[in-house]
Structure to design on (498 residues):
């Protein structure tokens, strides 16, 4: 798939399929659409009338252009109101344009869209993301590829000359999103802790990054009793993965990203019952997938920021040497934990990862975890929960998520609720009462961070979608990668280049 920015407009581009992003304000026809309509012998007006197209968000029409015309197909996709136009509307409309063109077996696609907020770079970035992510299809586990191969090969972004760099950055970011999607979608007999090591190794080699993998004995030496407790019933060795990107020059900032890396969560002896979605618990490494997806993107984008990508990878299984509910574990900061529920395992692995990251001397730590069903109950399938005691870090993440179109919502660190985690015998329990249990999970994690500004993202809902949604096909979404990349790049991508 080849993306190009061109100074051609919809009036002088020719190719298989031209799709125009039409806001409600562009109707009745005005601006350049009047000229294009005249050039196409009133075709646009006819389509609009026939389909009662009003530019509404999510609406789309496509029609054939008579022989000898500059294009074979003409599509219109609604952008909703231009007051204000949202970047995410462009991304979703570009996805819908790509799906239309693909269905019509078009090889070349010209996209004529308005520029968002006088920022052609972010506009080009959003359009590229929308197309590339919508056309990605995962046929790795089908014996015969369904006859739905991708037809669109060339994508021309009209009126966006000079935006080649923004396109390239978007493609590199999408590489990371697609890696995350592949990791989450692959089953737990394929994506094992070892496979995550292989993935990190490939990224390290391709992009000249440092990789440290701590084996069980290394983790024992560091006193990672919480992580190792979760791992103890699995036949697969746990792997503590630490991948580091260092810029050529002195870093402007040092950051750590931790991803929950449970390649399967059976619940342990507090076994997930039928109906609990146990068969979906391959997604429980969605945080690690986002971290390594972001690593793959950052390795190519090469910002002047040092970034540590960390995951304590293991399975949560049952066997004769499984954790007993009631066992007491000691984490690497010396805190003791009564495991009153073996299914609250993610926080146990994250505890040791947070202690490790806290010692790196970074400026901020962000963890991403498919941590609680309660967060899905609170915010639904599309929105992640964000917890942070640090307002300025929380605001940075909110801003990055907003630009990326990944939805999240800040949740309270209600300290009083930690009372629900009090243990008679140990420093704390690992699971609190059901009400507010995504909050107590965040409060538990906080115990393992000393002074580094820290934010926690509960991504249990949005890492997977059952239905097609904008630029996501059913399946893994790669949630988190674009927000992380936007956050890490900071000013370099955020600065308006318009
Ligand atoms: N991995 C699950 C959370 C989860 C649930 C992710 C559904 C994706 C979809 C996590 O390890 C878990 O089991 N959490 C428990 C915690 C409880 C025992 C305190 C939960 O949410 O029920
Ligand atoms: Mn669990
Ligand atoms: Zn889990």
């Amino acid at each position: 798939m080849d993306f190009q920015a061109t100074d051609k407009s919809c009036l002088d581009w020719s190719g298989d399929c031209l799709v125009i992003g039409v806001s409600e304000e562009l109707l009745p026809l005005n601006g350049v659409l009047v000229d294009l309509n005249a050039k196409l012998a009133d075709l646009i007006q006819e389509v609009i009338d026939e389909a009662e197209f009003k530019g509404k968000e999510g609406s789309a029409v496509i029609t054939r252009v008579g022989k000898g015309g500059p294009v074979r197909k003409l599509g219109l996709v609604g952008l909703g109101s231009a007051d204000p136009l949202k970047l995410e509307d462009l991304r979703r409309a570009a996805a819908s344009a790509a799906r239309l063109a693909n269905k019509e077996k078009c090889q070349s696609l010209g996209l004529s869209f308005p520029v968002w907020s006088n920022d052609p770079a972010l506009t080009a970035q959003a359009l590229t993301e929308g197309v590339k992510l919508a056309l990605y299809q995962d046929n790795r586990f089908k014996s015969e590829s369904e006859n739905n191969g991708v037809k669109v090969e060339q994508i021309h972004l009209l009126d966006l000359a000079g935006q080649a760099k923004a396109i390239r950055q978007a493609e590199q970011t999408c590489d990371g999103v697609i890696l995350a999607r592949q990791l989450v979608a692959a089953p737990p007999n394929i994506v094992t802790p070892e496979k995550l090591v292989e993935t990190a190794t490939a990224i390290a080699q391709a992009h000249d990054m440092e990789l440290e993998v701590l084996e069980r004995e290394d983790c024992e030496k560091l006193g990672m009793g919480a992580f190792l407790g979760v791992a103890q019933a699995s036949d697969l060795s746990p792997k503590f993965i630490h991948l580091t990107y260092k810029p050529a020059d002195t870093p402007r900032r040092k950051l750590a990203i931790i991803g929950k890396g449970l390649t399967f969560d059976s619940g342990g002896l507090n076994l997930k019952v039928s109906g609990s979605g146990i068969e979906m618990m391959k997604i429980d490494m969605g945080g690690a997938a986002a971290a390594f997806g972001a690593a793959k993107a950052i390795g190519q984008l090469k910002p002047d920021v040092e970034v540590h990508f960390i995951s304590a990878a293991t399975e949560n299984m049952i066997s004769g040497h499984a954790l007993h509910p009631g066992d007491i574990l000691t984490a690497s900061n010396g805190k003791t934990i009564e495991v009153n529920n073996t299914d609250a395992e993610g926080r146990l692995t994250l505890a040791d990862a947070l202690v490790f990251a806290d010692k790196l001397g970074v400026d901020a730590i962000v963890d991403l975890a498919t941590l609680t069903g309660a967060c899905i109950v609170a915010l639904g399938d599309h929105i992640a929960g964000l917890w942070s005691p640090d307002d300025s870090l929380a605001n940075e993440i909110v801003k990055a998520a907003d630009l990326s179109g990944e939805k999240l919502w800040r949740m309270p660190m209600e300290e009083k609720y930690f009372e629900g985690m009090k243990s008679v015998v140990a420093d704390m329990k690992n699971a609190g009462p059901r009400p507010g249990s995504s909050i107590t999970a965040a409060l538990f994690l906080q115990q393992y961070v000393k002074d580094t500004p820290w934010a926690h993202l509960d991504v249990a809902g949005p890492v997977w979608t059952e239905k097609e949604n904008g630029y996501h096909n059913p399946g893994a979404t790669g949630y988190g990668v674009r927000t992380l990349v936007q956050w890490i790049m900071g000013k370099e991508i955020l600065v308006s280049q318009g």
Notes: The first helix runs from residue 32 to 39. The longest strand covers residues 305-316.
